[in-house]
Amino acid sequence: MTRSINRDTQLCMSLSGRPGNFGTRFQNYLYEALDLNYVYKAFTTRDLPAAIAGIRALGIRGCAVSMPFKEACMPLVDHIDASAAAIASINTIVNNDGRLDAYNTDYIAVRKLIEQHGLDADMRLALRGSGGMAKAVACAFRDAGFRHGHIVARNETTGRNLAQTSGFGWAPDMSGVSADLLVNVTPLGMEGPEKDQLAFGRDDVARAKAVFDVVALPPETPVIKLARSLGKPVMTGAEVIVLQAVEQFVLYTGVRPDDALVARAAAHALT
To answer: What is the pLDDT of residues 22-75, one digit of tens each?
Structure first.
């Protein structure tokens, strides 16, 4: 039976520079499966302060925040959870009776994945990117005990800042950087103009012991395909996006779906 929207329906949303369908399909699947009176819709904006003010003014229950808004949202909310405060980047806003509370479920998801995949903290890390998501990922590795590696970023200011925050070195490119674990946190390989671009060169991947691409759509990015072809263990953005989306769902609804239902929702959303 199709759920109908009524005056009591609670709206959740996302704000992204490149709105996609994953969150909409994942969250709405769970709402319907659990018979919750919620609906989820993706948006973008050219006026971030007005968009965040609208969440408060209209009683929108929650908002997922994606690139490039994760850091710019910080001064626009009322309370910042420790998961976001430690890395000065948010990806989730929850409206509690007009008070906007901010979290970072990206950080939580990456910490879980590092543990699940049994990554060795002695591995040398090369993390490409220096934006809000890169900060969440770098700090998750830092807090998981990784001490050796580089932030690889063309923007020297943001690259050095993230390197200092996370305790790694900085490099403008992969020249002279030797890494056991390659991590992409840039749009390279994402659906759009960069979808065919490799985040790391073939030689870098061949030398690495494992590859992690945070890009979720498509789940099989060029660098993940290359790594698989070379027999390298991989971690994908699809794993990250599902774990962080579950945590967002719990924050919005107070309900934690079981693993089987999450798997069905993820399969539906990633189709």
So the answer is: 999 999 999 999 999 999 999 999 999 999 999 999 999 999 999 889 999 999
Q: Taking the domains of the chain in order of start, what are their residue ranges?
A: 10-104+239-270, 118-232
- The superfamily in CATH containing domain 118-232 is NAD(P)-binding Rossmann-like Domain (3.40.50.720)
Please count the CA atoms within 13 angstroms of the CA of 32 that sit on its side-chain side: 15
Q: Looking at the domain covering 10-104+239-270, what would its CATH class be? A: alpha beta
CA 178 to chain centre: 25
Residues annotated as catalytic are: 70
Whether residue 159 contacts residue 213, with contact meaning beta carbons closer than 8 Å, is answered with no
Alpha-carbon span 270 to 26, nearest angstrom: 8
Cα separation, 57 vs 79, in Å, equals 17
Structure confidence at residue 2 as a pLDDT band (50, 70, 90): low
The pTM for the full model equals: 0.86
